[in-house]
Write a structure and sequence with these properties.
Elements (H helix, E strand, L loop, with lengths): L2 H17 L3 H14 L10 H18 L3 H11 L1 H16 L8
């Protein structure tokens, strides 16, 4: 499975947890994936911090996958990154106390 497939699967899992009211499970799922990338969910979570994390992750992929052929293959996978971060932000919004989330 590509990284895009994996992120899509974890995004779906997190969404399922949230729809069942298991916000802590959703938050922990997203947090676990970010930890594997060497990242953490920032505190507080804002749309700006999410955007910065997306940019940083895309830059990391660009550095790792500098080959043109690999870049072409990765383009399909990269489209799921903003979706993952959006859902992670939503989970953090409901999981963390509202005083720690700046909107």
């Amino acid at each position: 499975l590509s990284i895009g497939d994996k992120l899509s699967a974890y995004s779906l899992l997190g969404t399922m947890f949230q729809s069942q009211g298991k916000v802590a499970d959703a938050y922990n799922t997203y947090s676990s994936i970010l930890t594997q990338f060497g990242e953490t969910i920032p505190d507080p979570v804002t749309p700006e911090t999410s955007a910065a994390m997306i940019t940083e992750t895309l830059n990391m992929f660009e550095e790792v996958y500098d080959d043109e052929w690999v870049k072409t293959k990765m383009e399909e996978s990269l489209c799921c990154i903003p979706q993952f971060y959006c859902e992670m932000t939503l989970a953090a919004y409901f999981f963390k106390p509202r005083t720690n989330v700046n909107w």
